[in-house]
Predict the 3D structure of the following.
Amino acid sequence: MKLTKLATALLLSGALTLSTATVSAADLNLSVAHSVGEESTQQVTSLAFQKKIAEISNGSIEATIYPNAQMGGDRELVEGVQAGNLAITTSSPAPQANFVPSAAIFDLPFAFATIDEIDKTFKDPEFVKALGAEYEKAGFHLLGISNLGFRITTANKAIMTPEDLKGLTIRTMENKNHIEMWRKLGANPTPLAFNELYTALQQGTVDGQENPMELIYTQKYFEQQTDISKTNHIPHCLCWVMNLAQYDSLTDEQKKQVDEAAAFAIAAGEKYIRDNDAEYEKQLLSRDRKIHNLTPEQLAKFKSLVVDLWPEIEAQVAPEVYQNYTKNIAK
């Protein structure tokens, strides 16, 4: 397994541990599963949670980590947590919206101009409280939301205008709002499980895809795609969710420890991605890949084609969630 410089430094300092399974007499062992590789922020965040929960509980709570879709793709992982077969998963809210309709709030296209704008909303306690209430209705405890920047687009050509998407088959997550957004932009959206994406690019089943810079690099999608275009169409975030019944079964002290460990892990993941995105870009450029920055005017052309999705998404989510998400968005 390869790790970036920050993860290596954290390991050497003892801030993280590479162990994904332990044998001990802990009172509680929490299974933590995600669908992506061990170079990812999800793994770094999971390791940070593992280390912190053991530390603050004096070893009475441990976490066992299952990366690389060992327990299934994102949808299966969310189902597993809802059913109580897994304790915790972390994933994009897109597949979670199949279980928690209000998670569709993150699908509002072209809502934010900067990472700081995203942060202002994701860290708003009123928004987190409103969204958490909706997760509870579906049997989840929302542990927190990671702000990991933007999702961007790759293909074997630059995507600078909506016209560049005409006729292009774009892999999307299994999410109706994402599918509709790409259709309105002129592409042919094809929902596909994350663990099938590399092969689909390799075989030409899809012409392009959208993910954050980190996954474009660590999942090696750049091996099959020449151009990375910063379309910044939606935020890239991770919602940490735990089985609600298991969370409710914890003592007040254990709940406090789990929440504290999750907050620590989320902050560690956000620092990790901020520290490493520039390095990912450098590595991609060294491999003769082209990175295209879009101007606000160019992005506005994309947004103009999908603004009618906003009221459709508003109708899918709880009013308190929509109100508290959009109140911080620059009009």
Observations:
- The domain at 152-233+288-326 is CATH 3.40.190.170 (D-Maltodextrin-Binding Protein; domain 2).
